[in-house]
Amino acid sequence: MSTTLNTVRDIIDKILENEGPDWNTEENSYRGIMPETYKEFCEDAGSCIPHPELGSHPKTVYAFYEWYLDKKAHVSELPGYFRYMHADFCVNAPAPAVKIIQGIVGAQKDGVWGSKTRQAVAKFFSENTPESRGKDFVNKLLVKYNDERQAYYKHISAKNSRNEKYLKGWLARCERVLKTALHYNCCDTNSN
What we know:
Number of domains: 1
Number of strands: 2
Strand content: under 5%
Oligomer: single chain
CATH topology: Chitosanase, subunit A, domain 1
Radius of gyration: 16 Å
Strand order of the largest sheet: 1-2
CATH class: Mainly Alpha
CATH superfamily: Chitosanase, subunit A, domain 1
């Protein structure tokens, strides 16, 4: 593991740690990869192994996450210190994750990463660098993102009782991700 957590490989490794090594039979996902999203990846790639065979193809799992972090999470457009936290939330809730970023940067909170969001992200993070605002500012942004992520999980659990059984695990994951993001917050905004 590097001393920062902003390379795609480092982010994928951390996400896979959180997802665990097994199939989630209830939702038919492997390491966070849902069949519907995997199908999109396969369409972009031209062809793939069948979803049920992912467990014996770790290179495909990494290729999927490289695609996902680029196409769905847009991590390359975020500063290094923000990539892991956003990518981890995008694994199971991409539109709500985008809405949090949109709220932080002052864009319309529609959950779609379009040209206006892209412009607002670029403007906000170029004007609010760790060098100009300090590490405390970065930490406050990470805590704000985490608080909103937790609020989302609490909301969907209150709205749908079937989600209540997941709430404790979701909130624990939020805390692990925040702790990791704060630990690796070296204010490095370079992309790798």
